[in-house]
Amino acid sequence: MILVSDEFAKDDGKNYRNRITWTQNSDGTVRQLWEVLQGEKVVSTAFDGLYKKQ
Questions:
Q1: Whole-number mean pLDDT of the chain?
Q2: Rg of the chain in Å (alpha carbons)
Q3: What is the mean pLDDT of residues 33-42?
Q4: How high is the pLDDT of residue 32?
Q5: How many separate domains does the chain show?
Q6: pTM of the model
């Protein structure tokens, strides 16, 4: 699943969007990757986590 935010402006005057992707892995875990985009370019990673059952 992929969610993408509307554009927003930061203090630097540039526009950005958030893109959060959840990927189910073959071992049953789920990766959540939260990226900050400027246009289509990834400028930073806000979060990169792995979820697994206990």
A1: 97
A2: 13
A3: 97
A4: 98
A5: 1
A6: 0.88
d(CA 23, CA 1): 7
CB 48 within 8 A of CB 34: yes
Q: How far apart are CA 52 and CA 20, in angstroms?
A: 18
Q: Which amino acid is at 31?
A: R
CA 29 remoteness from chain centre: 17
Full residue range of the structural domain in which residue 20 is found: 2-51
The band of 40, judged by pLDDT with boundaries at 50, 70 and 90, is very high
In whole angstroms, give the CA distance from residue 44 to residue 37. 7
Task: Evaluate whether 16 touches 8 at the Cβ level (below 8 Å).
Answer: yes
Q: Phi and psi of 14, rounded to 5°?
A: -95, 155
